[in-house]
Design a protein that fits this description.
This protein is mainly alpha-helical. It contains 9 helices and 2 strands; from the N terminus they run βααααααααβα. The longest helix has 27 residues, at about 95-120. The model has no long low-confidence stretch (mean pLDDT about 85).
């Protein structure tokens, strides 16, 4: 029988979303939001690509609704967050791979996808396909560097693996559940 940590993962996701909304205005200019990349990479490493995608999507929607941010809040986050988690998993836990996934996902894919979104949906004129590439890459390099240093420090202290392990579902054997029941009865 597996013991689910679903509630803990939801609380962690909610904390990432709240933190992302609060710190996103730091160093933000249109097309560059380094603190969002810090959240994307950290969430991807802690929780995986699906939660990182959901986190980026929720932060983007909240920022668009409350702060009036253009759709760049979505195009500049969802691809990088997802690829960050995928690259981290494929590399078997290399932090640099998570940062690289964010740079490729946001700096290249997200920036190019932003052109049709901003031109045809938002009505912005005078853009080219590569208009957002420099600012998106600069933002991911800044946020990615901060995330890289933070995660390296967490890894060095052993906290990274503790956090990751606490967010995973664990096998609960009958013996463990019996001893837990006895402790609760005492």
């Amino acid at each position: 029988m597996k013991k689910s940590n679903y509630l803990l993962r939801l609380v962690m996701l909610a904390m990432f979303v709240a933190l992302g909304v609060v710190i996103s205005p730091i160093l933000r200019v249109e097309g560059m939001c380094p603190m969002a990349h810090l959240i994307n990479i950290t969430c991807a490493v802690f929780m995986g690509p699906a939660y990182a995608l959901l986190c980026a999507l929720l932060i983007g929607i909240i920022r668009m609704a409350i702060m009036g941010i253009p759709p760049l809040a979505l195009t500049g986050a969802v691809f990088g967050a997802t690829l960050s988690g995928v690259f981290y998993k494929l590399s078997k836990g290399k932090i640099f791979a998570a940062v690289l996934g964010e740079i490729i996902g946001t700096g290249l894919i997200g920036s190019v996808v932003s052109y049709p979104v901003m031109t045809y949906l938002w009505g912005k004129e005078g853009l080219t396909w590569f208009f957002y590439v420099p600012s998106f890459i600069c933002g991911t390099l800044i946020g990615g560097s901060i995330a890289f240093l933070l995660l390296l420090r967490l890894k060095a202290t052993g906290m990274l693996s503790k956090i990751q392990n606490s967010l995973k579902d664990v096998e609960a054997t009958e013996k463990n559940s019996e001893s837990n029941t006895k402790r609760k009865a005492s």
